[in-house]
Design a protein that fits this description.
By secondary structure, the protein is mainly α. The chain has helices at 3-18, 22-35, 40-47, 54-67. The model has no long low-confidence stretch (mean pLDDT 86).
């Protein structure tokens, strides 16, 4: 798994337990900047190991939904 994805997932896990969000949002923003938006969900889904709990992956995608463009393709 790419270290930038791993950092975002680790931040989500850590801050779920500590009730924080700043490191999570910073890590997810770094992931967003590194990967761009084109086909992002499919690329991440293919790269994230199935051993990562689905709740963590859902939280990652939830944060990304707020950070990515909201325009639908034509």
């Amino acid at each position: 798994m790419n270290p930038i994805i791993e950092a975002a997932l680790e931040a989500i896990c850590r801050e779920r337990e500590e009730a924080g969000t700043s490191a999570t949002f910073d890590a997810v923003e770094a992931l967003h900047q590194a990967y761009g938006e084109e086909d992002l969900a499919n690329r991440l889904f293919a790269e994230i190991p199935r051993t990562v709990p689905f709740e963590i992956v859902v939280e990652l995608f939830d944060i990304l939904a707020w950070e990515t463009a909201t325009t639908a393709p034509p």
